[in-house]
Structure formats: structure tokens, C-alpha cells
Amino acid sequence: MVSVVPILAPLLVGERRVVFKNITWQGYQQLREIVGEKRAAKMMFDRGILEITMPYTEVSNSPTFPICSKQQLYEFLAVAQIDEVEAEVNLRQWIKSQS
User: Fold this and answer.
1) Strand order in the sheet with 15-21
2) Are residues 51 and 65 in the same domain?
């Protein structure tokens, strides 16, 4: 059985980590084969513990809604908590103005 353990050590600024315990060497090799060598993640394996470290990259646009900045989405959500209809009307007007 594979278990995921939260990292207790402080993370360095600019990276994300995840740790898996009880990974077999064969499982690690299979994962490396699937992911390939050209990847941003660094994988470290030691006695059944697999640590994957990814560089953290801040993006200004939402991957789901690339037309909007994250700030615009946060503003939309803040308005939507108060008045969903107003938030939707404002968003539709903004999208029309971008066309």
C-alpha cells in the first residue's frame, strides 16, 4: 500500500513537494518510464520513499479561463459571494468588451 506523507520540513520558496512512502524499486522505475526524462519534476528515491519536487511557477492567468487574469477571477468570486447575478452580468460585459 502506498501512503502520502505531508512534508514537515519547511519548503524552499519556489518549489512544491510531495512524498510517497512504501514505493517499490520496480514502481519507481515504472513511474520514471511513464514520466520520461524531459520533465520539470525532480524525483528522488531512497529505501521505499519517493520525493517529487517541482519548481513553482506563478502564472498570472488562469489555466481554466486564460482570457481572465487571476485577479479578475478573484474579484468575480468576491462579488459572486454577495450577488451572483451582478457578478455574472459584470463578467459577461467584460468579456464582450474584450472582443
Assistant:
1) 3-5, 15-21, 49-55, 42-46
2) no
* Same domain assignment for residues 43 and 83: no
Range of the domain at 50: 3-55
Number of Cα atoms under 13 Å in the Cβ half of residue 96: 6
- pLDDT digit string, tens, across residues 58-92: 666 766 777 777 778 888 888 888 888 888 888 88
pLDDT tens-digit map of 41-53:
888 999 999 998 8
Alpha carbon distances (Å) from 24 to 46, 49, 54, 74, 88? 10, 9, 21, 42, 50
51 and 77 together in one domain? no
